[in-house]
Amino acid sequence: MTQLSAAQNKPSDGSKALYGGKGTRRITVRDIALAKERGEKWPMLTAYDAMTASVFDEAGIPVLLVGDSAGNCHLGYETTVPVTLDQMTMLAAAVVRGTTRSLIVGDLPFGSYQEGPVQALRSATRLVKDAGVGAVKLEGGERSHEQIRLLVEAGIPVMAHIGLTPQSVNAMGYRVQGRGEEAAQQLLRDAKAVQDAGAFAVVLELVPAELAAEVTRILHIPTVGIGAGPETDAQVLVWTDMLGLTPGRMPKFVKKYADLREVMGTAVKSFAEDVVGGTFPLEEHSVH
Ligand SMILES: Nc1nc(=O)c2c([nH]1)NC[C@@H]1CN(c3ccc(C(=O)N[C@@H](CCC(=O)O)C(=O)O)cc3)CN21
Ligand SMILES: CC(C)C(=O)C(=O)O
Ligand SMILES: [Mg+2]
Question: Per UniProt, where does Mg(2+) bind (predicted)?
Answer without folding.
Answer: 68, 107, 139
